[in-house]
Amino acid sequence: MTTVKPKGRAAISTAVNPIEYFQRLMLAAVLGYFFTVEVAGLLGLVLTNIMIRSEAAALSAMLGFLLYTFVILWAFADRSLLRLWITIPGGALVCYGLSQSLATGAPL
Amino acid sequence: MLDSLRSSLTWLHTWSGLLIGSLLFTIFWMGTLSVFDREIDRWMMPETRILMPDSYISMDDIRDAAADFVPADSSRWQFLMPSEREPIIRMYYQGPEIFHRVHLDPNTMEVVEGGETLGATGFFFPFHFSLMLRWNSIGYWLVGLAAMAMMMLLVSGVIIHKKIFIDFFTFRAEKKLSRSSLDLHNVMGVLGLPFHIMITLSGLIIFMSIYLPGVMERTYSGDSSNFTNEAFGDFVQQVANEPGGELVSFETLRAQAEAIWNGSEVYYARIWNQSDANATIEMRRNRDDAVPLNLDLVSFDGDSGEIYTVHESEPVMAAQRWIAGFHFIQFDHWTLRWVYFLLGLAGCALIGSGFVIWFETRRKQHELEGKSGVRIVESLAIASITGIIIATLAFLIANRLLPADAHLMGQSRSDLELWIFFLSWIATAAHAGMRSAPKTNAWVEQCGTIAAFSVVAVLLNWITTGDHLLSAFSDGLWAVAGIDLVLLANALLAYAVMRRLAQTRASKISPTEASPCQEIDQIGTEVGI
Amino acid sequence: MITLGGFVLAYIGFVMLAMTQSRPRKLLCEASKQSALRKLCYQCSGSLLLLCSLILIIADEGWSFGSIVWGTIISLAAISVTLTITFATESFRKIVHVVGL
Q: Which of residues 41-70 of C touch B (CB under 8 A)?
């Protein structure tokens, strides 16, 4: 059986290591989803100051889909895994915290 | 992840395309068919091939006709006023056990009897957005996953397409399959881009409450149960558990609603808890004349006719309704309806050609190395593309062949039609799997089957209903004629593809083929990575 | 009818734009070198035709329907130009020659 060294596009397909791939998949699909919900949710909460609550929620949800698309691409495009691990789960937690404190009216 | 943005996204685009391609093709195919769902219904339910009456249709006549079969204590029943596209009154009611669907002839107010079938409005359309999988909304979530993947695929596709402007009009059909399918993929993707992005994003936005409920929760600081009422305006009175009187005249309610809407008509009415003291009647405004799938509704008390709510969308929800309306295409616009159908098919071609690129560029390499990837993916592609088309045609044929009272082992006639769809689909997958590489034979045979089934469907319509093309045209049955014409066009196209593939197969073994290394190399550099 | 007019304008506009690209040009007319000024003229006229298509359709259907009609018609026009170039190369070449492009 002759082995052919794939070049070009076929080569790219086999070049990624599974552990890194799995991390990025989790960051994109799972953590990215929660990041989107928290960021868009915080936006919604903030927007209630200038529009009716149902309107704020609808607008933030619609923008959320655009944000999520970007996050998925970013999770695979960014060279630095560390940056992704800090920003995505970290950002989600920060926004969650802000949402909670804004909701209860407690100072940050 | 890899050396450059382009190579990382090429990797992502390739592998996610491969994983989600079958599901995406299914959704796009069923969505494309759903553009003409009401027309397909006329074809599948010949008893509904009625002409719209010229005279005024009174809602009170509908109410009186419904009293014959809707249980007095039914918690909910609803009906759609007839239209050109659907010249019957489509009614649903909650019975003791199941939710029934009934058709009334607007000319006579009689129930139209026919073989039980889901039709396109009952199968193709819901299959498109929920895969008919209702357990814990898993079907909705799978469709949502596919839609988010599609958004990512569209954006990444643009980023990785190095020569996007240079190759704008490039489609080299005469070159080998790996090249021509890449050209087709690029052309369908780039030239159809505004439509593909809008249709995908709008699909997600329609179900925003299902897909991003957390956003509503954060905005409402926890309890978001008011969101639906505030955004969508639904209002149903709490059940009083006391018997109520007779329902008020629907025509008076209709007149009030149409006055509120400056003459715009009521297209839909829903009656909640009709025998209760707190019966509620909703009337909704027609969506024929504008893009938005408006939520304009008036809710009345069923006994007194008192108005409880008048709902009209606020600005952001109005935008959401425009976006939803863009996707649903319920408005009256025949040009756009055909345009959507063609662009939907372009989307199907986009997804299908993606598969072809993958296995054609790896064919030689996998053959030499004894890998099974190409064989598996090609079988999957055949089942996903020609397979689902065959299953769709089998569904239409079953609809014409099954007797009206058909049932088997507890399965109703409409269940049997679904069984035939899914079993045919599985059969095409088995057929594709069993055909050994190269699988040109499987493609040729399935294309031939598509051509044959399409013709058989048209013939069966003629035999079982008498409404052949000429007769349908002269009787003004545009829907039936249209479906028959599309089926015949489909047959011609499938036949042409089959002939072309058979020719390619016959001339396949040529002694001057380039060596494997060179070929794969070429593709790599041609793609511009 | 108006929509058809919009489609035709878009189609011709895209043909003009296609003529500024090397591959379609090689297929459709003998001259392979194009001066920068000529290229600019073609691009401007092509874009102008697309704009006319937009104006015509919006005038007829309004912004709500019109944006959808134009947005989808231009896709179909571009795809049609591509398919014409690929499958009707000879006829297309003759027409282009006659029109004097």
A: 64-65, 68-69
Range of the domain at C45: 2-99
Give me the residues of chain B with pLDDT under 50, please: 509-529
Within this chain, do residues B25 and B68 fall inside the same structural domain, yes or no? no
Residue A6 lies in a domain: no
Asked if residue A65 is part of any domain, the answer here is: yes
Instruction: Count up the domains in chain C and report the number.
Output: 1
- B149 phi/psi in degrees, rounded to 5: -60, -40
The number of folded domains in chain A is: 1
Residue B417 lies inside a defined structural domain of this protein: yes
Residue C49's pLDDT band, with cuts at 50, 70 and 90, is very high
C72 at B interface, C-beta within 8 A: yes
Contact C82 B171 (CB under 8 A): yes
**Chain C residues touching residue B322 (CB < 8 angstroms):** 64
Q: Of B111, B138, B156, which closes a domain?
A: B111
Angle between the B193-206 and B334-369 helix axes, to the nearest 10 degrees?
A: 100
Q: What is B488-526 written as a DSSP string?
A: HHHHHHHHHHHHHHHHHHHT---TTPPPHHHHHHHHHHH
What percent of chain B shows pLDDT beyond 90?
Answer: 79
The whole-number pLDDT of residue C98 equals: 83
Task: Mark whether B466 and B435 lie in a shared domain.
Answer: yes
Do chains C and B touch by CB distance (3+ pairs < 8 Å)? yes
pLDDT for the residue C30: 65
Residue type (1 letter), B100:
H
What pLDDT, in 10s, does the model give residues B34-91?
A: 999 999 999 999 999 999 998 999 999 999 999 999 999 999 999 999 999 999 999 9
Residue A5 counted as domain residue: no
In the predicted model, what is the mean pLDDT of chain C? 90
Task: Measure CB to CB from residue C3 to each of B290, B326, B335 and give the nearest one.
Answer: B335
| Domain presence at residue B81 | yes
Q: Do B155 and A53 touch (CB under 8 A)?
A: no
**C23, pLDDT greater than 90:** no
Q: How far is CA B489 from the centre of its chain?
A: 20
Count of C-beta atoms within a 10 Å radius of residue B176: 15
Sheet arrangement for strand B266-272: B99-104, B89-94, B76-80, B266-272, B280-285, B297-301, B307-311
**Number of domain units in chain B:** 2
Query: Is the same domain home to B33 and B64?
Result: no
pLDDT at residue C8 above 60? Answer: yes
Q: Do B214 and A79 touch (CB under 8 A)?
A: no
Which domain, by its residues, includes B67?
51-111
Put simply, the answer to whether C14 touches B169 (Cβ < 8 Å) is: yes
B152 to chain A: nearest residue by CA? A69
Residue A40: both structure tokens together: 């868009």
Is the domain of B482 the same as that of B439? yes
Instruction: End-to-end CA distance of chain B: give it in Å, rounded.
Output: 15
* Neighbour subunits, C (≥3 Cβ pairs < 8 A): B
Q: A34 in a domain, yes or no? A: yes
pLDDT for C33 equals 72
**Which pLDDT value is given to residue A15?**
64
Q: Is residue B499 part of a domain?
A: yes
In the predicted model, residues of chain A with pLDDT beneath 50 are 1-3, 107-108
Contacts C18 to B, Cβ<8 Å: 168-169
